[in-house]
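In this section we walk through a basic example: taking a raw amino acid sequence and producing a predicted 3D structure, encoded as discrete structure tokens. The instruction is simple. Fold the sequence below.
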Amino acid sequence: MTDSVDVLNMLKIVYTLYTLAVISLICWFGLGVVNPKGKPRIVKASTFYVYVGALITVGVAIHIVTFNKIPWVEIDFKRDSLKAAQVVNITIEDHKFMLPSPKIELKCNEYVMFDVISKDLTYGFGIFRQNNSMVTQMQVVPGSKNDLMWKFGKNGVYHLRSTEYSGPKGAHMYIKDVFEVTGCTEDDKYSQKGGSL
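The resulting token sequence is shown next.
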């Protein structure tokens, strides 16, 4: 599975180039608008519309090409046929995570179901690397089914934090080093204790 950090780095480059192309379109249009009377138009209408069409085509193509690279897409598409090898039940109440144990061990390349229940407010459930980049997250709504299926493909130690505003106390909903993934042939360089940040 592609790592979300790698996807983000690739998308930064792609979207920067795409944004520069859109900005060039705006500049091109602006030059055509301020062109003094009597001078030939810098931008012909047909050329302008071809350029807009090309930008739309490229924008749609970016999404088609990258949607399979995003880690959670495959799991979401196959969710009805996937069976979790491990279920982690977590309850949230009064701005506190109640975990089944202080440290939760997860196996590499096995589907894990995080079944999270809120007893009072809307919270977030987010798993983060040691460098504080997000692995995955979901909103936890009281009275609703809140489950998240995930498969870790690299060894690492991950933090848990609330990713949803639930009042001033929500900023302190953070548990360090709670999930440990083992059994992979590769380490997540961003999730090693004392490793790359």
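Looking at the output, two observations stand out. Residues 111 and 151 are 5 Å apart (CA to CA). Strands lie at 86-93, 96-98, 104-107, 111-118, 123-128, 134-140, 147-151, 156-161, 174-182. In the next section we compare this with other chains.
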